[in-house]
Amino acid sequence: LPGLHVFAIALALEVSVGKTNTVMALNNSNVLLPCIFTTCIGFQDLVFTWYFNSTEMIYHGKIKSKASEPIIVARNPRVEFVGSTTGKENNISIVLQNVEFSDAGKYTCHVKNPREKNAQHNATIFLTVVQKMVETDNTVTLIIVGVVGGLIGLLILFMLIKRVVLFIIKKTQDGKKECLVSSSGNDNTENGLAGSKAEQKAPPKA
């Protein structure tokens, strides 16, 4: 039945190593290998194991119930458990100490839950070991940012020039108006004076 099928999926055991499945570590440093698991019906005597390159077991633990923390069954001396299963998340992450170049490879977090009819699930993370961290080449990004910044700068400059030009044109036009007003005023005065002078002249005697 479709309803039962959906119910079965909801109960499935899930294991995750986070958003990315790749980790980079410096030689001789400690590196965190994250892993969490989820189950809708809870767990009882759950077993989890970390493998290196699918075959070499580096950590093996058992968790009795949600109320108890994991018990170490076996582990590599350089591996330390740093998770917790009594909190909100069932965190079964480990830290690999004093990383060497030979530690680079595939790490698998495997979980088995007897309460879910021995349901099993795993997730894989890939570790790369480097001598020194190389800065990301952001040349393309810098070029894009530079071009965009330059265009914005040009736009602002264009707007400033436009405002200055409009301001100069406005001032020039205002000046011309003043000239026209004063010119026409002079003309009127002259005409007026001329008119008054003409009026002051006595008509010629017959």
Automatic annotation (TrEMBL):
Location of the protein in the cell: Membrane
The UniProt record lists the keyword Phosphoprotein: no
Main location: membrane
UniProt keyword annotation of Transmembrane present: yes
One record GO biological process: regulation of ventricular cardiac muscle cell membrane repolarization
GO molecular function: sodium channel regulator activity; transmembrane transporter binding
InterPro entries in alphabetical order: Ig-like_dom, Ig-like_dom_sf, Ig-like_fold, Ig_sub, Ig_V-set, Myelin_P0-rel
One Pfam family linked to the record: V-set
Signal peptide: 1-18
Amino acid composition bias (Polar residues), ranges on this chain: 181-191
GO cellular component, one term: voltage-gated sodium channel complex
Membrane-spanning parts: 140-161
Organism superkingdom: Eukaryota
Topological type in the membrane: Single-pass type I membrane protein
Domain called Ig-like: residue spans: 2-126
Protein name: SCN4B protein
Organism: Eurystomus gularis
Name of encoding gene: Scn4b
